[in-house]
Every structure is written in structure tokens, then in C-alpha cells.
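Data deposition worksheet. Section B asks for the primary sequence of the deposited chain exactly as it was used as input, without tags or linkers unless they were present during the calculation. Section C holds the resulting structure in C-alpha cell form. Section D is free text for depositor observations; keep each observation to a single sentence. Incomplete worksheets are returned to the depositor.
Section A, Depositor: J.P.
Section B:
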Amino acid sequence: MIFSRRTFYGAAALAALVLSPTPAAALDGPPAAATARAPLADFGAEAASTDARYAAASVLASADNQGLPFVIVDKKHAKLFVFDAGGRLRGASAALLGLASGDGSVPGIGQRPVSQIAPAERTTPAGRFLSQPGRNLQGEQVIWVNYSEGLAIHRLRPGNSQEQRHERLASATPLDNRVSLGCVVVPVAFYETVVGPLLGSSRSVVYVLPEDSSVYTLFGAFAS
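Section C:
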């Protein structure tokens, strides 16, 4: 993220897109009917969490990606999966995420200068986002997840050496991948060989999985 932050979907908008009318407390596991009929996304040999696999299957079962490529950001495991429109995995990578844990965003935070964003406010919000390719103010190609609030998927940039971002991406644990202002940051080679070619010429759908609530709540709408 460069100059601004982003806004989490309002409750009504998110409910219309991804939330089930089923109470959250009732969705402590995958709905049996949805699981039974959901086509499996093709992860190939890539390791993926149960949450990521359920999310991908739910997208395909409901055709929620509307014929577009889609991305799943697994915040708990600091990993990003990029799929083509048919659900075939085109690539996966470790990712850097917002410094603070949490699935929401402070209202209006996208209008603040970076210097006025407190560490506790630097979250990567969860939800469903219709993304679009574009460029930031430096002319760098990015994938805007929420353009108006500056939330994007972008390459690793040269930065403060004390943050050790290269090392964080290369480490075996996701625990040290929380360092960004909220954007999803991936290695340069992964962006240029997977993200850019697949997502850089048209819209796509980005699903950022929650870390403070159940993925089954987020995708509960696909059970009906």
C-alpha cells in the first residue's frame, strides 16, 4: 500500500455478497449439502488449508466468481492462491499482510496519510472484492482490491531493511508475515509470472478469508 488505506464492506453489502441468513453460531463447520455438491478446485500438489479448499469449492459451487479468475487470500496461513476462471490453480505464494490482526477496517481510514495510521489499524480486511488492474501513483502495475481505499495486491518493493520483508516471505512460518499497511504483498517473480499475466488485463474476484471468525460464516450463502 502506498498512500491510502481501505474500507471493509459495510454490513449490508457484505451480507448481500457472501453472508448466509443462517446465524453465525450455527455455522461451526461446512454445511453438509454445500460440501456434497461443491466441485473441488484443482489445487494440484499445492498444500492448502481446509479453509482455503472449502472457500475455493464454495466459489465454484455457486459460480460466485462469475466466469472470472479468482484469488483466495488465506490470512491465517499468510498464503495467496490464484485460480483461473475454471478453478484450476495457476500459482500459490506466501504473502505479507497487514501488521495488525482483524477482519474489519476503521471507517474513513483510507483518507488518512500513512503517517496517521496507527499500527493497530493496519489490517487486511476480510471479504469478497471485485478487483481491477491498474497503476499506483508511481506508475507501478498493481491489482486494486479496493481502489478507492488503496488496498492492492502488489510486488515486494525495496523498503526499510529493518522490516526484512524478503526474509519474512521466505520463512517457513506465517507468524512473521504481518508487516504491511494492509496490502497483500507477494514476491516479484510470483507477481510477474502469475499475478500479472492472469489478473493484470481484466477484473477478477478476490476472497480474503477471515481470521477472527469462521470461513463457513463468510461463505454460508453457498449452503442454500
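Section D:
Confidence is low (pLDDT under 50) at residues 1-27, 32-36.
The helical segments are 11-17, 32-37, 50-62, 165-170, 188-199, 215-218.
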